[in-house]
Amino acid sequence: NYGNQIDGVSKSSVTHQQDFLNQQALSPLISLCPHQEEGLNDVQEIIKTEKAFPERRLRGVLEELSVGCSRFVTLANKDVNQAGRTKLDRERLKSCMREMDTMGQQAKQIRTQVKKNTVKDKLKLAQNFLLRLRFLADEPQHSIPDVFIWMMSNNKRIAYARIPSKDILHSTVDEETGKDCGKVKAVFLKLPGKKGFGPAGWTVQAKLELYLWLGLNKQRKDFLSGLPNGFEEIKAAKTISGHHSVPPVGLAYNMKQVFQLRAHMYQARSLFAADSSGLSDPFARVFFSTHSQVTEILSETLCPTWDQLLVFDDVELFGEASELRDDPPIVVVEIFDQDTVGKAEFIGRTFAKPTIKMCDEHYGPPRFPPQLEYYQIYRGNCTAGELLAAFELLQIGQGGRVDLPPLEGSTDTERGPILPVPLGIRPVLSRYRIEVLFWGLRDLKRINLAQVDRPRVDIECAGRGVQSVLIQNYKKNPNFSTLVKWFEVDLPENELLHPPLNIRVVDCRAFGRYILVGTHAVSCLRRFIYSPPDKTSNNWAHTEEENDKDKKKKKKKKKGGMEEDDETDERVTTVHSQNLKEKSKEKKSSKDKKKGQAADCSEKRPIKPKVDELLVYNKELESEYGSFEDWLHTFNLYRGKAGDDDEHALDDDRIVGRFKGSLCMYKLPLSQEITREAGFDPNMGMFQSIPHNDPINILVRVYVVRATDLHPADINGKADPYIVIKLGKSEIKDKENYISKKLNPVFGKSFDMEATFPMESMLTVSVYDWDLVGTDDLIGETKIDLENRFYSKFRATCGISSNYSVHGYNIWRDPLKPSQILAKLCKDAKIDGPHYGPGGKVKVANRIFSGPTEIEDENGLKKQTEEHLALTVLNHWEEIPRVGCKLVPEHVETRPLLNPDKPGIEQGRIEMWVDMFPMDMPAPGPAIDISPRKPKRYELRVIIWNTDEVILEDDDYFTGEKSSDIFVRGWLKGQQEDKQDTDVHYHSLTGEGNFNWRFVFPFDYLVAEEKIVISKKESMFSWDETEYKIPPRLTLQVWDADHFSADDFLGAIELDLNRFPRGAKTAKQCSIDMIRNEQELPTISIFKQKRVKGWWPFVARDENDEMELTGKVEAELHLVTGEEAEKSAVGLGRNEPDPLEKPNRPDTSLMWFLGPLKSIGYFIWRNYRWLILKTLGLLLLLLMLGLFLYSIPGYLVKKMLGA
Q1: Which residues cross the membrane (predicted)?
Q2: pTM summary value
Q3: DSSP readout, 518-586?
Q4: Strands 854-856 and 985-988: what pairing?
């Protein structure tokens, strides 16, 4: 349908045109997505195949993106104010313009940063751009309905395809045209409704080739313009008078091309496991045009090598030859799993475009014969393996098939008429020998409810293989008695085309039955290819002078306070020398180092002696040292059907055990130099000088420093964590030492366990949450494979410290001294040395190292020793040619805690390290003490002497005069409930107050962390106390006391007891600048000064939220230790012992109800005495006048009557 009729929905022309405008405006954005996707896929393919210059292609992709973004912004600027757009359309377009503009600028910036070593990181950023583009291109409000195509059978809808209208939208501007508009497109029909979801909906019900065009009525003359040429229209009789151009009823093609398709199906790898055994029985079905063929079925494999040529004869394609050459139809390949009962199960699907050859072209390089390529197989949205194949489409000319390149006949009598992949296309093969190291099997689960007892490992690659010896009793010893076996096989010279190697473990049961336990496919063999050492290069033979220069550089680094490593995720923990009581291994002190390392170190380093340092990795040690798989590799064994979820986390459920061993492959014949070397054991092949795999007893010492960011396990959002250590059948529960209500607990514990390798080699460190009622909950756990660590050449048994010390906090932990370790390493590696010479020098493998030769014992006596020299070599062992590697230093590793019930989600992190000591060696010393530092008891005595210039808050009832009833309140942060108040200085008219009042604050303090430690119950319902660490801060406040209402707050000052400004000597010198410019002023610490006296300002915020001065306080701070406080006790306020004098306060400071006459006399008489005297005189006069007037009439009568 076209014009105004779309899927049966009729719309008015105006509305319809608006919809087209909206769609067309976003079309350039939509067209950018496929270009970007194609470009990024190219970059991935270049990286994968290790071709040259992937960075150039990525720069081109980013350039195309930035140009596309600017083009979209230019076009959108014209469109945004077009008539017929609603406000929503305009705002959406503006939003897209903003996003695209930003994206274009970012792409341009990233393009300049693309280098050879940053390609992978920048590729991820470019993929994020693609996701953003897709999000913007997706229309949130679908204005034009999509097109639905239904397949009907017996009036039932059996399959359908939905085609987005934006993809087939026509426009006169090419950039705005939908990607499939006016093109012949293959459409795959799927099941309708709920049937279409999940695995059932992934199979194709039918394939249609459609030509679709959707446009405005006025543009209908263009609707056939995209069809392949060479057709005639079959038109219906004119029934609609108004329409001049009606779509034809049919098309008759008189131009067709005949082709032959050759599908070279070589192999597939890492296919989806479709059977319960963890394997599949795969075959491939190839669809092209209206033809389909299948390969043979290969049983029980995930990496089938079909090596089969499928020939599709007489494939008819319509259209001009040039059109077909530019855009050939796609080939669809579907992989199925053949089941004995029922239909074949769908594994995955991939698409490919064939390399096309027309009859007039020569069959030869560079295009022919085609190269085998890898095609990604998809199952729904998930990847399900890769297909290695090549497809060529050859035109059959006038001469017929005779002109085509000849096909080789079937050479394999067993496989019947199956054609192999021709020689020019199949890889060139060479003879390889694959040596297999069979070490042992671990953690095998039950199969069919029975335990695995006599397992065997079968190795297969390209049809050849080898079997291990049978383990006679898996429980007693899961290691193999014969270590090395080999087999020879023909493999492609191109390493990228190497077939996978399959590892299968079977269990020998009664009556000679073999049951499959699990399988593993090693898809990439490149890392196991043996490369002989280059003995011609002498660039490793550094001179002694160069070595000294290196040393100087390293020394300079250390003086800066923090050793900078290439890896950003390593940091160095430094511990102050005053806290060296065996605590250097604890990392708590590194918190404040991170904040003020540079500032602190510049002051402290010259004064204090050098402190030994400890590396703290903020990741697992395995990720730093390649999982310790330098010669012993671990292969997970899988069994069971793979899950269909998008996440592959479910694969963990399929793991049924682990095979430990290794592979080594090399071309034959091998150089005679290697086999002629002294001590070469032909039975061990390339696995010379590896240790024996007999059972060995080990002492395992686990140090747990702390846990961070634990997942809350209780209702209050906290947890009560404790440690549980499991190794084999041994288990240590530290339940009684749980830490209450902490998500960042500091454990500081060490645990000793004995184990026997290989039976007990998996260490599990768990953190549980203690509960008063019910079972304790697992917060998270981490598992460490101790066996790989123990046997690794990186020597992960006990970390090599930076300095050798026989006493003190950093005592040497290893039972072997550095010289013994060095001698053993040199002997095992068959290198010359060590030769100790005069002047503090040692020579190892033509490499000279220098270092100190004296050591101090506990009494301070100096002795001659070679240990420092040996340790210098060990710390630079990676510089030794051929055998050198970085030995594991003294360290703390940070491991993620995981919970099996919440797979893939980190539940916190744990900081720890593990030491291992063989029991047949000398016994190690006692474990070092890493318990958390105990806080020290202190007492802070604060004497408030006077205040001055305190703002006056009250108005006098009688006189209106300003005054304040001043008192001072003080407390230490975190102890607000223990706040203390002075007595009240009443009726201060000038802001002056006299107190002579003492506050006493006892507290526990951690010197190294500069924190006060407070233990208190969170609430009345809490079972136990919770410990808090807070900075030591003294708060002093000045208040105005009120009798009948709440006291008025006037001002405050908070002093950080570690860094606060020195007090002013007089009240005049005390100003608000002491608070405002606190960062610039010199600061003092009460922990160093012990006693400080001075004036400090009180401040408060005014209505404009600006600081204003509200008073000054003269105070004296005196810090004493807990012992000193007991010896010289003092009283609170002005009490005994050591009482303070009473302050000399003015008479006005009395309370009015204690001395009312005195108060009246002071306030009224002093200010109004003349007024009172005048009033009294006037009253007397008036009284006399009144008496006179009262008595005069009687007196006059008496006189008149003569009385």
Answers
A1: 1177-1197
A2: 0.71
A3: EEEEE---GGGB------S--TT---HHHHHHHHHHHHHHHHTSS---SSTTEEEE---GGG-SS-TT-
A4: unpaired
